[in-house]
Input
Amino acid sequence: MKLYNYFRSSASFRVRIALNLKGLPYEYVVVHLTKDGGQQFDPSFRALNPDALIPVLADDDRTLTQSLAIIEYLEETHPEPPLLPRDAVERAYVRAIALGVACEIHPLNNLRVLRYLVRKLGASEEQKDAWYRHWVEEGLAAIEARLVAEKRTGRYALGDHVTLADVVLVPQIFNAMRFDCRLDHVPVIMGIFGHCMELPAFDDAQPSRQPDAE
Amino acid sequence: MKLYNYFRSSASFRVRIALNLKGLPYEYVVVHLTKDGGQQFDPSFRALNPDALIPVLADDDRTLTQSLAIIEYLEETHPEPPLLPRDAVERAYVRAIALGVACEIHPLNNLRVLRYLVRKLGASEEQKDAWYRHWVEEGLAAIEARLVAEKRTGRYALGDHVTLADVVLVPQIFNAMRFDCRLDHVPVIMGIFGHCMELPAFDDAQPSRQPDAE
Output
């Protein structure tokens, strides 16, 4: 398999973790998001993914896009170890936490969104950073509230097994730290983060350990 | 089952379509997003969902959040008729289209995001509308490009059976029309939209047919 990705992309980071957890080797193909005006806009990459978004996973002649769809695909084609529990209600719970990051936080802090704020709405650097932190801090607080209320939390987001929820939470925390977001209001999430980072699958997938890290 | 929702919420609209397609009756519970400062912020609703987001599906004593997680749950607990194909690659394709709306378009046009633009960044009504249209038009163009390139498109997004991709696309088109977005650049999507709207499951779920429609 080939993973078209970028060290700093948190959606790419999710897929790297999932591949590592499943013990699947892959070729790392760099798509540099800022060099050459953004290599994701190259016609050759757009032919692979018209969205001009990473990650893209190429599995033989099949091209897969959208990190959560890729991870569900890996789960279906390589079920061990499972990243989703067996019970339908618990699966929905795990997916809802993952979507709480993937739909409520991350899209607002994408590079192209931040660029729009600055270039078209004239936001200052300070306003841009405040925007970033607002959605991260509010989004994580909502997830924290759920983790506290649900009482299903253990070493990880759901009990003592790593799931898709952890796979998506951890890269978001890396982003939050990079942009100096407040994190002292989400101690349960930070506990889960610490436990995940003890695992080589998470540690090896982090931005600074990638071949294109700057 | 009880669906906590709002006629105009497109994430709610997705779940209404899925429930209708599966032939599952449900009680419609209104959570008015603008009345009383937003009923989603009521402590009673926040106890149900700390995200203060709709839809929420209550199935007996189980509370499910995030529209895509809810639909995957319905798919797992009520598999007929299927909203995901059997083949793993095709499932990933359908999910990627759904996520192309749910992660790349819809989060940017949420009520709370538009409010932030106006209240905190001082965006004018015109700038707010331009923002809305930008993400809808660009996001739909990317999906259109994929539908054209993949050649898997039929009467619906994947061949001649309704899938999750259609369930998520249709409410986004309703939003696009409400905000006068350009749609002449996405003829394949509009064809799919037309075919979907011929089905009672889609038609009955549309905003104007809901009990709280204004």
User: Anything to note?
Assistant: Chain A has a mean pLDDT of 95. The beta strands of chain A are 2-5, 27-30, 56-59, 62-65. The interface with chain B takes residues 50-53, 62, 64-66, 68-70, 72-73, 76-77, 88-89, 91-93, 95-96, 99-100, 102-104, 106-108, 113, 116-117, 120-121, 123, 127, 130-131, 134, 142, 145-146, 149 of chain A (CB under 8 Å). Residues 125-150 of chain A form the longest helix (26 residues).
